[in-house]
Amino acid sequence: MVLLLSALGGCSLPIYSEAKLEKESELQFDQLRTATPVSNDVLVNRYVNCIADAIIATLPASYANREWEVVVFDSPQVNAFAMPGGHIGVFTGILNVAENQDQLAAVIGHEVAHVTEHHALERVNREATTQLGVVGASVALGGGQGTADLLQMGAMLGLSLPYGRKQESEADAVGLMYMADAGFDPRQSVQLWTNMEKTGNSQPAQFMSTHPSPDSRQLDLIGLWVEALPRYNAAREAGKQPNCRP
Ligand SMILES: [Zn+2]
Fold first, then answer.
1. Partners of 90 in the beta sheet?
2. What is the pLDDT of residues 138-173, one digit of tens each?
3. Ligand 1 centroid to 171 CA: how many Å?
4. Rounded to 5°, angle at Cα 238 from 99 and 95
5. Measured in Å, how far apart are the chain's first and last C-alpha atoms?
6. Are 158 and 25 in contact (CB under 8 A)?
7. What is the Rg, in whole angstroms, of the alpha carbon atoms belonging to the chain?
8. CA 229 to chain centre
9. Which is more confident, 19 or 241?
10. CB 89, CB 81: distance < 8 Å
């Protein structure tokens, strides 16, 4: 077994493929939709979709051309997420924290950036190789029960484990450019995170627990305005002036 593990550690073959993760994400998303009430408030759905559509249109072609599913969950949870394969979930609780379309665009841009930067895949493969090498070895040897376990674990990790700090910073930076390119004011991202931190002090904000806050988050975002603001201005001049209302 030691030999197997070291062989596994030494090869660069990912245990988990993007395709597998997308398939599992699909199942996970369906389960969540079954277990959690979905908002049928037409105005709220229109508002969230208006913002998500504008962000999606700015993504690299392989993501922009995919069919995304956007679901608003009727739940006080302060939470939102995006999953590989093209799923976006927004809980109505986060609408009390994201005060306007630009702040919600910051949330969605950040979440979608986790998908386009393959963060869930990185996380799942790292977890699988380091902590579950035994299961991984079984998969490398051709599947069986280990495969099912690992797939299940991957799905679990896809939603519930926090991203790393480096991934958070990357999603902040990439997401900021997505929102700017879509014509949302990137300066609002800083206010969003300030609101989020305040909320975390008074009520459980699930979003904060899966999104460890780099201490320098707001300062880092401000540092990126020099790149984001010209992109925002260019987008506005090109006619991208989203007007999404709750
Ligand atoms: Zn994040």
1. 72, 80
2. 555 455 555 555 555 555 555 566 788 899 999 999
3. 6
4. 15
5. 57
6. yes
7. 19
8. 23
9. 241
10. yes
Residue linked to tokens 């493969």: 125
Q: Which amino acid is at 106?
A: A
How many angstroms separate the alpha carbon of residue 241 from the centre of ligand 1?
Answer: 26
Question: What is the rounded CA–CA span in Å between residue 219 and residue 77?
Answer: 27
pTM for the model stands at 0.84
CA of 5 to the centre of ligand 1 (A): 31
Strand 87-91 relative to strand 69-73, pairing: parallel
Distance CA 143, CA 12 (A): 18
Distance from C-alpha of 123 to C-alpha of 160, rounded to nearest angstrom: 11
Query: Rounded to 5, what percent of the chain is helix, strand, coil?
Result: 65, 5, 30
Of these residues, 22, 111, 127, 168, which one is catalytic?
A: 111
